[in-house]
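My hope is that you will study the protein record below before we discuss the fold together.
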Amino acid sequence: MTQDTREGSGGFSEQERAAMRQRAAELRKEAERGRGNKAATAELDVLAKIEDMEPADRAVAERIHAIVAAHAPELSPKLWYGQPAYARKGKVVCFFRSGQVDKERYSSLGFTTEARLDDEGGLWPTAYAVTALDERAELTIADLVRRAVG
């Protein structure tokens, strides 16, 4: 997605939000009819959690969700400690923590030991502070997510 398709918040455009709400409604209907599967329910939970966030965190969480979906489609969204996370075979690889929810000055994007990141030199980052995402940060996140699923 290019910068010009987004609202000023840096998150999804209104059209993209409408599509997400429509997808969430479809997942809810499937679950109500007993046809919803566990993965669909987990995705719905993540989308609902993101929608309930404060605007600044929502914008960041939406972008991270889109980046993970685009660059690591093999990861499944799920809630982890009440926050959006992305798992492979049930094990969380990366996660988003809302600074607003945690009463911290910044949100964070983190990686668990399941992530296949470089462990060279005896010291490497496993979490990143996030307050806003520019194009460079989005490219960095996309690279980290691709490497994490290796």
User: Anything to note?
Assistant: The chain has one domain: 12-149.
